[in-house]
């Protein structure tokens, strides 16, 4: 078989997965017993897997998730208030396809950011576009963008994402500009794209966090309607981690 010209052709066509699969099969003596159709199927499978992996890597890079968390690593015993069945259902990603939201609340350090990143990571695997933002930094970045003409472009980029993670909302109340920014973001995504919001404050206190009753109604109506909720409880996992470091298991 003309191995090198075939490899060159696959590479020049950008079929790097097939090229790798071709080299691997050539190196296996038992592969000579395969039918042509089986060869082709294996090479196409390799190409598909490699493309999916590349796509996932680029999605994950763009998402800029704060934690390297994955849904497979969730410790259900450590996180109190986490319903395993609900979380596994969310991990499957149908809520994103149905354009629903997810609100994760609970005290400091119970794993809100971590779980949101685990779901963000899984969403990247499912080929959704994702971005993670801490709310105070995003609002500060939007205020800056307003001054230098990037505001509309930034909002447009946020609106296009399949999943937007807004981490650490509150406890500071929003000012007038921030309220409007949040309304723009939520309005753009309503019944079109999904949001995860995490906050130490329970959902029934978000109204006062927004400040203006009319805008609070508008934001919360769009955000809370159609939202799944996870209300975590218990001690900070940071403390548990520190005591494990101080007293490692023998
Ligand atoms: N489900 C989990 N499995 C394993 N480790 C976890 C899990 N959840 C959280 N952790 C660990 O606990 C630490 C605290 O979690 P995280 O930052 O998500 O808390 P948080 O509720 O968002 O806190 P804060 O309100 O202060 O932002 C993380 O650094 C992470 O390593």
TrEMBL record:
<dbReference type="InterPro" id="IPR047661">
    <property type="entry name" value="IstB"/>
</dbReference>
<feature type="domain" description="AAA+ ATPase">
    <location>
        <begin position="98"/>
        <end position="231"/>
    </location>
</feature>
<keyword id="KW-0547">Nucleotide-binding</keyword>
<dbReference type="InterPro" id="IPR028350">
    <property type="entry name" value="DNAC/IstB-like"/>
</dbReference>
<protein>
    <submittedName>
        <fullName>ATP-binding protein</fullName>
    </submittedName>
</protein>
<dbReference type="GO" id="GO:0005524">
    <property type="term" value="F:ATP binding"/>
</dbReference>
<dbReference type="InterPro" id="IPR027417">
    <property type="entry name" value="P-loop_NTPase"/>
</dbReference>
<keyword id="KW-0067">ATP-binding</keyword>
<dbReference type="Pfam" id="PF01695">
    <property type="entry name" value="IstB_IS21"/>
</dbReference>
<dbReference type="InterPro" id="IPR002611">
    <property type="entry name" value="IstB_ATP-bd"/>
</dbReference>
<dbReference type="InterPro" id="IPR003593">
    <property type="entry name" value="AAA+_ATPase"/>
</dbReference>
<dbReference type="GO" id="GO:0006260">
    <property type="term" value="P:DNA replication"/>
</dbReference>
<comment type="similarity">
    <text>Belongs to the IS21/IS1162 putative ATP-binding protein family.</text>
</comment>
